[in-house]
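Could you please consider the sequence and fold appended to this message?
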Amino acid sequence: MKNTTERNRRKFWAKQLDEAYEFMLRVMEHPVVESYEKFVSLKKAVSGTVIEVVFSSKQHVLGLPRLFVLRQGLVKNFCKAAEKMNQHGWIMRIEDAFRNKIMQKYLGRLPDVFDKIMQKILWELNGKVPTPEFVFKRIMTLIAQIPKTGTHMSGSALDISVVDRKTNMEIDRGAPYLEMSERTPMESPFISVEAKRNREKIMEIMIEAGFVHYPYEFWHFNSGDAYEMVLREKSVPARYGAVDWEQQSGIIKPIEKPEKPLNKVGEIKAEIQKSLERLKDKIRD
């Protein structure tokens, strides 16, 4: 029975990530006509209102501060979703929003994150060491490796957790933010009934506010970008694409060659070796 369950988990993980990769390929092909819409601070958006939102206090990669901003056209959606959660007895916690190229490049290479993904890949492959190309394919679906597929880089995505308004305890969604396992996809069957119910309610609130959910991560919601167009099967160009944002001036510039990977094969190969060294005791066990 245990072996059957393990096979089912492994099969689900592989199938979901294969589907996610195919989704990313469709996103790569979808047209974008940049709107040049400015970025707006989410903290300022709720300041002076009755809406309660909390923001992650954790530093980003390389000690960088998190950039809690969205495109101007999505701020109303954000406020609507946050207010609805308050009415439900919850508080939205923003884990991540806009990422610049440095953030996106190195997030997937953080030892803790990379090791989690490597452990699952080794589990998926029954201990066989993967090629850099296979690791790239898997990471690409969880932490975008190409600007064209990175909705955080377009200022159109939020990663969220949710906490109870009275107790400040995190609402059970089956796993915490940045889980890298068969529990990560929104429709994972490997979570409790309560966690599934919570995911569905959070998703309902976000969708009603104008966001779509990325099917392969239970924390990711976005709008106005290529993800949304592909998910809704619309052929019209997305209005938000990956951009460079100058914080002081507010100037937005589309990223040059957005289809170019942020990490080269050689860099991923080096990360694999470092990860295997860190994981050797766990692998042996």
User: Anything to note?
Assistant: Residues 179 and 240 are 27 Å apart (CA to CA). The chain has one domain: 2-284. The longest strand covers residues 157-164.
